[in-house]
Amino acid sequence: MSETHFFDHNDKTTWLLQGDSTCTVNTTKLIPVIAPSILASDFTNLEKECADVIRYCEWLHVDVMDGHFVPNISIGPGVVECLRKTSNKLYDQSTEKDRKHWFLDVHLMVSKPLQWIEPMATAGASQYTFHVEAALEEEKENNKESTKEDLAVLQHVCETIHAHGMQCGIALKPATELTDAIFTLIDTKQVDMLLIMTVEPGFGGQSFRENVLHKVRALRDRYPLLPIEVDGGLSEKTIDAAAQSGANVIVAGTSVFKAADRPAEVRKLKEGVLRHVQA
């Protein structure tokens, strides 16, 4: 098995905070981060499922959907709180030296990203990733006379996330392109990770869209050490295209949780990243 990098929710020196000099991860070379999406797990055995994959993966990816920004409804702060309590319980019960408090990578596919920052922080989310499209639309709905520039709107969301003690990610739908506002957020280290959706957000099990990878390439060319996440249709068959473009954070739901040999599948994903991002 390829090395599993250590991320601990209770130890921020292990995080990917771009504006914090105490964080030493990812500062000299990119590392592979595998984040199985629990949406593809067996929810009747969620504790067992999560405890299994986190042994050989870095993060747990938690998809939150509100039935408005996307046409599906999934889970909310209650499940995140249960995951955090479970993680704490298992940590306290373990005697292994490599035990860790699970890093919960929470992807908000919701219409009002500002509304859920405090509840998710209280529940125990480690990273809060919001959609640029939703944040800009929320500003318009809240203030129809608003003259705020996109950058100011996005900065406010990012600042609020960091103020609540979480790592901040921003996500783009397949049709949304990179903008100067996004580049400014990265340049000023207000964003810790970019998520490029390789499917339409809302449902698991979709086919990988290779035609969005130009955004990953543009980001990697400009930011050699920026954590870039891809989500949707990632598997042994698509990892090379994603990693060759520059992605190093891989969300994989169906391909991991439904695999006959989960550790072997994760090893293939990590090896795919290592073949390209550290080449």
TrEMBL record:
EC number(s) reported in the record: 5.1.3.1
Superkingdom, natural source: Eukaryota
GO annotation, biological process: carbohydrate derivative metabolic process; carbohydrate metabolic process; generation of precursor metabolites and energy; nicotinamide nucleotide metabolic process; purine nucleotide metabolic process
Function: Catalyzes the reversible epimerization of D-ribulose 5-phosphate to D-xylulose 5-phosphate.
Subunit comment: Homodimer.
Catalytic activity: D-ribulose 5-phosphate = D-xylulose 5-phosphate
Keyword entries, A-Z: Carbohydrate metabolism, Iron, Isomerase, Manganese, Metal-binding, Zinc
Recorded GO CC terms: cytoplasm
GO molecular function, one term: D-ribulose-phosphate 3-epimerase activity
Segment forming the signal sequence: none
Name of the protein this chain belongs to: ribulose-phosphate 3-epimerase
Family, as annotated: Belongs to the ribulose-phosphate 3-epimerase family.
InterPro entries in the record: Aldolase_TIM, Ribul_P_3_epim-like, RibuloseP-bd_barrel
Entry's transmembrane regions: none
CDD domains: RPE (cd00429)
Cofactor: Mn(2+); Zn(2+); Fe(2+)
Gene3D superfamilies: Aldolase class I
